[in-house]
UniProtKB/TrEMBL annotation, chains A, B:
It is an enzyme of class 2 (transferase). It comes from Benzoatithermus flavus. This is Corrinoid adenosyltransferase. Required for both de novo synthesis of the corrin ring for the assimilation of exogenous corrinoids. Participates in the adenosylation of a variety of incomplete and complete corrinoids. Belongs to the Cob(I)alamin adenosyltransferase family. Keywords: ATP-binding, Cobalamin biosynthesis, Cytoplasm, Nucleotide-binding, Porphyrin biosynthesis, Transferase. It catalyses: 2 cob(II)yrinate a,c diamide + reduced [electron-transfer flavoprotein] + 2 ATP = 2 adenosylcob(III)yrinate a,c-diamide + 2 triphosphate + oxidized [electron-transfer flavoprotein] + 3 H(+); 2 cob(II)alamin + reduced [electron-transfer flavoprotein] + 2 ATP = 2 adenosylcob(III)alamin + 2 triphosphate + oxidized [electron-transfer flavoprotein] + 3 H(+). The keyword Cytoplasm applies.
């Protein structure tokens, strides 16, 4: 490339970046409302709960308090829970007592466990000190009809207005998506399970 | 519902759950390989970096060490960085020195900053003590051609074999997706920006 074309190239780049910056500045300036958000992470891909733990980390970094209800207890001791339990002054965590469905094989017991967890979630959603409440895998519970959808929607609609609530799990109900402010679908593009690779420490759990 | 139909309902549920459990048990038993994964979070939705911080939390929960290179430094002090910096014995973190592109308006300086950050990333990808390396927003750097794609792919292909590497950012290059083990696309379903709500503490940063 000749020196002249490099100079033109640089100038074109600077001009383009200046346009982008101006557009971004205008965009951010127009966003002024604060609001407690209802955030939903759904889809069949990875990262739904994981992104909720990332939000938790963000809150903890700012010294903000959170509540966590895990509606599904897996087979393994997850790193995120071990970690969150180290901050009892900032994190209130409630784990639904038993495994889930295909583990417990007992619908009545699962419904009772879901109910107990949800009652705790409702308390958290009114607690004045919390910045965020994460309802991990609530979508699974709703999908199995272990909690009445109307009651859950009502509790979300009447949450403390400035509280952020994050709901995770595949197959989010359309009514929940309708009620939400921010919805992300995690879409599976490629998964190592297909090649016989197992779920690994620090990645899957 | 009569008592008889409730009993049949329960039996049908138990049978279904037993089938699911058996299928899950078979599936997990067939997955035996351990492998350092190349994980990519891309797409235009939220949660790409956030899910990487969730993976970081998972590692920290298990006491595993990580390396983090942030290729884009935003306007604000992000909670996740404030937080990760509290664990210097577990987390090595490198932030690309300047803002980025539309902030700096200086292509040459951005390229030099990307190069310095990438050299650090290459060192991390060989470090024997790390369980995971997060290359946050590397896709953006590749998209602007601030680093040669071939060199990046080569560094990823020759990483320590049992190391997990997470690459985030929209517009992941097809060659990177091809090379990856686990790829998730975060798809925007609904965003509160549309209603004039601004990026908020503990959610957006």
């Amino acid at each position: 490339m000749s020196e002249g074309s490099e100079v033109r190239d640089e100038a074109a780049h600077r001009e383009k970046m200046a346009r982008i910056k101006a557009a971004k500045d205008r965009l951010y300036a127009s966003k002024t409302k604060e609001k407690g958000l209802l955030i939903v992470h759904t889809g069949t891909g990875k990262g739904k709960s994981t992104a909720a733990w990332g939000l938790a980390m963000r809150c903890l970094g700012h010294g903000l308090k959170l509540g966590v209800v895990q509606f599904v207890k897996g087979r393994r001791e997850p790193g995120e829970r071990k970690f969150l339990e180290r901050f009892p002054e900032l994190v209130t965590i409630k784990v639904m007592g038993e495994g889930f469905t295909w583990e417990t094989q007992d619908r009545e017991r699962d419904i009772a466990a879901a109910r107990a967890a949800f009652e705790e979630a409702k308390r958290m959603m009114q607690a004045p000190e919390l910045h965020m409440v994460i309802l991990d895998e609530l979508n699974i519970v709703l999908r199995y009809d272990y909690l009445p959808l109307d009651e859950v929607l009502e509790a979300l609609a009447t949450k403390r207005p400035d509280l952020h609530v994050v709901v995770t799990g595949r197959n989010a109900k359309p009514e929940l998506i309708e009620a939400a402010d921010l919805v992300t679908e995690m879409r599976l593009v490629k998964h190592p399970f297909r090649e016989g690779v197992k779920g690994q420490l620090g990645v899957e759990f």
